[in-house]
């Protein structure tokens, strides 16, 4: 597809500036040896010209219908993309991140859509069992978790022109380069592992397949992911998407109308969780505290993407909740064979598809076992 040439030829990270302490977020002592940092990144990346326009929830309802049509993206009903920019667009962003630990292997964590880096380090009472960052530091790793641009502590960007898949991939590629040379890291990263959840899993796979990052990545782990888009429709419809600034003006009033969020806590429960395998208060936390809007430009640009999975050479582990709605339509048994078959260049491919969880694996009761499966995989790769 068009995106392959966009990503492989034109996503250029310009000379990097070092990781800098975020002066707007005072560092406080934390048991995981964590600190908040700000990472300035300058990129030159082509943009898709996306024709979608969102002004209110009526427009969102129409968009949801279009995105969930059976023939969406096909010749009968193509993506809302009219072309690409004539040349790469130069942009500078500030990426807000949390850097923890002292290990020589660094895990770079990319969160999903409708989320922030809090997914990896939740802060509800009793969340220690769901804290991937804490578990990873205890296992001996350094961890960089970051907010994707447009989200949380990172730069607020235009929902159509900046918040696009290929831009997010280039940001992740720049983080890989930064973490190996960053003067502020306690120990320079000698090995780098990418871990992505949901939308972040697609970003992780695309970065691992790219010329920019392929040779700098030693392993990747993907969750909330089956490699295709067949089951996006129930996820998007079930989210009951709304304009974020209208839904919560005090929190998101400064965003443009192209940033969308879920309708309520019950929508979050449907798209993220499996009844009996999580605590309902966690779904409430997800909606009230852990959620972040996503930008309209992120989905068309992803769906226009041909991620070349065969170009991934690092060992890959895919870890799935059995009841994941967006990845597998609510039943992941036997659903990972296709993506496994596409990873023909990877040194190792391992899949787990039977954990008792929905889409947000880390926030289910099974999380500690899932974390140990991931660390065991990394140890067996010498990481």
TrEMBL record:
This is Alpha/beta-hydrolase. Residues 1-18 form the signal peptide. It comes from the Eukaryota. The keyword Cytoplasm does not apply. It holds the Pfam family Abhydrolase_6. SUPFAM superfamilies: alpha/beta-Hydrolases. Residues 107-364 form the AB hydrolase-1 domain. Belongs to the peptidase S33 family. ABHD4/ABHD5 subfamily. Keywords: Signal.
């Amino acid at each position: 597809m068009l995106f392959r040439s966009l990503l492989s030829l034109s996503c250029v990270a310009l000379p990097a500036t070092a990781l800098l302490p975020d002066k707007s977020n005072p560092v406080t002592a934390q048991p995981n040896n964590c600190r908040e940092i700000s990472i300035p990144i300058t990129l030159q990346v082509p943009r898709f010209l996306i024709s979608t326009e969102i002004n209110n929830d009526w427009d969102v309802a129409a968009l949801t219908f279009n995105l969930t049509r059976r023939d969406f993206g096909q010749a009968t009903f193509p993506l809302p993309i009219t072309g690409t920019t004539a040349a790469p667009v130069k942009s500078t962003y500030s990426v807000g991140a949390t850097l923890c630990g002292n290990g020589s292997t660094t895990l770079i964590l990319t969160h999903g859509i409708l989320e922030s880096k809090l997914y990896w380090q939740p802060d509800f009472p009793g969340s220690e069992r769901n804290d991937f960052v804490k578990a990873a530091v205890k296992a001996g790793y350094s961890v960089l978790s970051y907010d994707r641009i447009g989200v949380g502590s990172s730069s607020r960007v235009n929902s159509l022109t900046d918040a696009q898949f290929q831009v997010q991939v280039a940001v992740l590629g720049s983080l890989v380069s930064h973490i190996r040379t960053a003067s502020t890291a306690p120990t320079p990263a000698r090995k780098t592992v990418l871990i992505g959840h949901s939308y972040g899993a697609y970003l992780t796979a695309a970065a691992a397949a790219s010329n920019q990052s392929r040779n700098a990545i030693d392993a990747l782990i993907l969750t909330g992911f089956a490699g295709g888009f067949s089951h996006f429709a129930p996820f998007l419809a079930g989210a009951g998407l709304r304009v974020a600034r209208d839904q919560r003006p005090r929190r998101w009033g400064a965003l443009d109308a192209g940033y969308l969020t879920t309708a309520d806590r019950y929508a979050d429960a449907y798209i993220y969780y499996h009844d009996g395998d999580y605590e309902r208060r966690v779904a409430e936390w997800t909606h009230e505290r852990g959620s972040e809007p996503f930008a309209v430009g992120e989905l068309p640009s992803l769906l226009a993407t041909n991620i070349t999975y065969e170009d991934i050479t690092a060992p890959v582990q895919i870890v799935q909740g059995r009841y994941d709605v967006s990845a597998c339509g609510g039943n992941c048994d036997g659903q990972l064979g296709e993506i496994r078959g596409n990873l023909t260049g990877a040194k190792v491919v391992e899949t787990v598809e039977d954990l008792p969880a929905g889409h947000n694996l880390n926030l289910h009761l099974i999380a500690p076992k899932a974390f140990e499966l991931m660390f065991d995989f990394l140890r067996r790769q010498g990481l």
